[in-house]
């Protein structure tokens, strides 16, 4: 497989850095092709603005999504966006490695989604979710938390990690753009002790050796929704 | 009241810009003191990194939250972070005005949370949620969507706006830091027609005139959770 790793942490010696390094060494030794976007090392521009385009359709009233749509057609994104989009098209599998900051991705990674997952490229009004622009590719979140696992259970103080916290990323970003997200890898409070970190690195290594066996998160295809965007009654199992 | 408006949109003529302008004019005419952080106009730095501190405790191994904790004690954040923190301490009410991008805040606003809601200032391991650093203040999200309201219902294709989408912001960012979030103001697909925009501006104006009557979102205080971070059985109404 061609594996793209999107990595967002300011400290190379961090546990996130160790997980990213393990991605590269393990996946390479398994015979995969690996590319890394190390957003901090690249000094990746986080903020979506006019500079993201080589030209603008409307200088007087800047509409970001509209300019994205045009830039996709005319191939006129800024070079840094083009490079990331090319890597996505090359990839069969995308791994996102980041610390969970404020129950979401760090701003530098949010900016990567805002800018690279462009209208016309990653989605359109007709092509979203299972028909999104990046369909045919799998993806996985690999993240670290500052609170223990119990805090993220359905009755946990921080909210259910899958249904309330990662949903806006797995469903709203990855699946929306056509990627098929598999179950995330979560290292709970790995900063607290060395033993945990070792155990998580071993566990992550096993996962990298069995990526194809990790189940996809079960989301409904768009065909399960009616013309009012409501899940059809026959699919409401819960 | 002292009202702080955190505004994140790249185009001043946008509908988000109009809502922000209405905030300023209406709240001022009602006798409130108003300050605005126009993140795009300020060219606000989105990415959390070493430059956020006037000095570092550990140059060799950069731990962001640890440096934040120290910077709070020694008053050594970068000037732009200090200014935002001072505005927060001044405010009785904080309004966040932004377009919903990828089911979350734009990167420039995520960066504002990452950098300004610092460990030691907005929270600590002991002081979170109802005892968070910004307690005693209210807050409100005011946002615009690209999909219609039906898409965000419990069976909607994009996921329940309150439980699945805005939860990580209202509960995870605002409430976590001690702010008391009231029900958000949401303009659904306002870009689609002029009539809708007029109607939303009138509706928003009415809301600004009745801010104190808008109910707070009902979240449990930390005392409702046990030592394993689980909601105590007597509070599980659902």
TrEMBL record, chains A, B:
Give the EC number(s) listed in the UniProt record.
1.6.5.2
Query: Which GO terms label this protein's molecular function in UniProt?
Result: NAD(P)H dehydrogenase (quinone) activity
Q: Does the keyword Oxidoreductase apply?
A: yes
Q: Which UniProt keywords apply?
A: Oxidoreductase
Q: Where is the Flavodoxin-like fold domain?
A: 1-208
Looking up Pfam families in the UniProt record yields: Flavodoxin_2
Q: Which family does it belong to?
A: Belongs to the NAD(P)H dehydrogenase (quinone) family.
Q: What is this protein called?
A: NAD(P)H dehydrogenase (Quinone)
């Amino acid at each position: 497989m061609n594996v793209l790793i999107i990595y967002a942490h300011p400290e190379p010696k961090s546990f996130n850095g160790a997980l990213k390094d393990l991605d590269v060494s393990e996946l390479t030794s398994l015979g995969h092709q690996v590319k890394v976007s190390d957003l901090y090392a690249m000094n990746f521009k986080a903020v979506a603005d006019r500079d993201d385009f080589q030209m603008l359709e409307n200088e007087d009233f800047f509409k970001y999504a509209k300019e994205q749509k045009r830039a996709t057609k005319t191939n006129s994104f800024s070079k840094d966006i083009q490079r990331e989009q090319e890597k996505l098209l090359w990839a069969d599998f995308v791994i996102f490695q980041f610390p969970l900051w404020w129950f979401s991705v760090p701003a530098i990674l949010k900016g990567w989604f805002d800018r690279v997952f462009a209208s016309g490229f990653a989605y359109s009004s007709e092509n979203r979710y299972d028909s999104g622009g990046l369909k045919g590719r799998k993806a996985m979140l690999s993240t670290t938390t500052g609170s223990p696992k119990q805090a993220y259970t359905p009755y946990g103080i921080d909210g259910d990690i899958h249904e309330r916290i990662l949903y806006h990323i797995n469903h709203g970003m990855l699946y929306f753009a056509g990627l098929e997200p598999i179950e995330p890898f979560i290292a709970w409070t790995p900063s607290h002790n060395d033993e945990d970190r070792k155990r998580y690195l071993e566990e992550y290594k096993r996962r990298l050796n069995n990526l194809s066996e990790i189940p996809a998160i079960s989301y409904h295809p768009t065909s399960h929704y009616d013309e009012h965007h409501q899940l059809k009654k026959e699919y409401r199992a819960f």
